[in-house]
Amino acid sequence: MDDQKLQSLRDLINEELLAVYTTGPESLTRPIYYVLSGSGKRLRPILTLITAKTCGCSTVDSLPAALAVEVLHNFTLVHDDIMDDDHTRHGQLTVHEKWDVGTAILTGDAMLSLAMILLLHKDGYPPALMPVFTEGLLKVCEGQALDKEFENRNDVTIDEYVEMIDLKTGHLLGLSAEMGAIVAGVSTDVRQALRDYARLIGRAFQVQDDLLEIYSDSSKMGKSLHSDIILGKKTYLMIQALTEIPERITAALHTAEKDIATGLQLIRQSLDEQGIHEQALEYVESTIQHANDILAAVDVPSSDLMYFSNLITKRRN
Amino acid sequence: MDDQKLQSLRDLINEELLAVYTTGPESLTRPIYYVLSGSGKRLRPILTLITAKTCGCSTVDSLPAALAVEVLHNFTLVHDDIMDDDHTRHGQLTVHEKWDVGTAILTGDAMLSLAMILLLHKDGYPPALMPVFTEGLLKVCEGQALDKEFENRNDVTIDEYVEMIDLKTGHLLGLSAEMGAIVAGVSTDVRQALRDYARLIGRAFQVQDDLLEIYSDSSKMGKSLHSDIILGKKTYLMIQALTEIPERITAALHTAEKDIATGLQLIRQSLDEQGIHEQALEYVESTIQHANDILAAVDVPSSDLMYFSNLITKRRN
């Protein structure tokens, strides 16, 4: 695997996504096309394709599973954007902003059924795919529910937070790898190890998101300007700060509500001085190391998945 | 089948629904319990149980499929209530009113995965259930999308309307019967005939809903006071009226926007005088007759399903 091969997988996924839903009421086909033609990084379906290939399954055969994973992921984005009232996603208006909340709800619902139809219509796919997909969906919902619960709490512990991101992000990455392993027909041991590897990658990915939320400018993240901070969303860094320097960080958040630039500067300064920034960076690194250790213990050629791990480590947006 | 046996099936369904989701974040378990403990008529899962029994499958074995159908139906209600901004459902506040839109979206999403988990966890259920369930979900979404599209059009034909209600209501009734037939393991012919029977029952059911919307008081319907009329929702009767007496009905709708009681009186008077009320009643009757004819041609004991047809014919709320 190299950057060029990665891009060709991404191109293939992007092309196929456009064909997922072409007939149906215009008020569904248009927003679904809009969402699926967006500029996502396609990390989850790429993980499915790479895992399948690692386990000896061709890209052609694993493609429907990969597409299902990406459609599922985009379903969660469309609904989460309503809940968080995010106005932009990947540099374009969110569905509920461009159309309305009703259209966005229905777009997500329909996408979920399309994801499952992709799995059900592929001849020869093992029945084990559906329970993994369905349980994954429930876990993602539970993660999002906890995330929302945490918004109204100031005593969230790091352990609770990690449990939440494992549900919300880790399980979906785990599912992406596991579906690749299932379509390749490997043993339960290998399948579970690859799932566990990917869950940890998901955990690292989310904490890195938390870092980028605070340390990147909003154009890079492609999200609304720091809406998560304003909404009081708990992140790895904010929870540490609320534990270690509650008064200082609460004051900075209050400032951010009125003046985002100054508030953000105060938040960054507090996190840097308290060593929380550094600690989060180390947490990402050690989590990826842990994932790679699991991978190294599995009896499959690991170079492509190691390349994937590095993608996460290196990412800057 | 008699009214007492029907009630005992309903009691069984109600009891089992409460156990569908008990562990998970409180912000999900509470609204899901709230929805599933509501006072729905449980017509869809009852149809699944009756169909399964008609085809020789026990209630115990068909119960998970029946519960899945009811959970799917309630998922659509929770999301539809947000889209239509309905404030009450079955005499209690809707989820987005009691909690908020985000909670209602997530509640629906989680319920969808719970419905599928019910199907996947029952040993011995045929793989054919999942495609039927998943396609049914897509059809329901497409029906709701068309319904919303129609709100902004004044040239909807009766044929388009019937296509829409077939998607939105008919397919879910059809799915309820078909799943009962599938778990009973009958032939494809029987399965499809029972599905077609139930789709027509669903069509009649929806037009009857349209009648009740205009001719019952709101407490009986358990919905917000005639919100559908105010929203300009197209119904069987309104479409006929817009075709036959466009000016008169438009004037009555404008009156209803300001004064619902007077407007509704004008609407009823117009529909009665034009014979549209009578025509809709006849359409319901002939559709149920068509359904019963299909049923009579199938080689299964039809008395329990005939009882079900009568339930629909007789219903007053």
Notes on the protein architecture:
The structure is a homodimer of 317-residue chains. Chain A is mainly α. Chain A has a single domain (3-314), classed as Farnesyl Diphosphate Synthase, CATH 1.10.600. Chain A is 77% helix and 1% strand. A two-stranded antiparallel sheet of chain A has the order 1-2. In chain A, strand 1 (88-89) and strand 2 form a beta hairpin. In chain A, helix 2 crosses helix 6 and helix 3 (43-54) runs antiparallel to helix 4. Chain A is globular. The A-B interface holds A 24-28, 79, 82-83, 101-103, 105-106, 108-110, 112-114, 116-117, 120-121, 127, 130-131, 134-135, 137-138, 141-142, 144-146, 148-149 and B 24-28, 79, 82-83, 101-103, 105-106, 108-110, 112-114, 116-117, 120-121, 127, 130-131, 134-135, 137-138, 141-142, 144-146, 148-149.
Condensed summary:
The structure is a homodimer of 317-residue chains. Chain A has helices at 3-17, 26-36, 43-54, 59-84, 95-98, 101-121, 129-151, 158-184, 188-215, 218-221, 227-230, 236-244, 246-258, 260-273, 276-296, 303-314, and strands at 88-89, 92-93.
Structural category of chain A: mainly alpha
Shape of chain A: globular
Instruction: Write down how many β-strands of chain A occur, each being a DSSP E stretch of 2 or more residues.
Output: 2
Strand fraction of chain A equals: under 5%
Secondary-structure element order of chain A, as H and E?
HHHHEEHHHHHHHHHHHH
Mean pLDDT of chain A: 93
CATH architecture of chain A: Orthogonal Bundle
Q: Major β-sheet of chain A, in short?
A: 2 strands, antiparallel
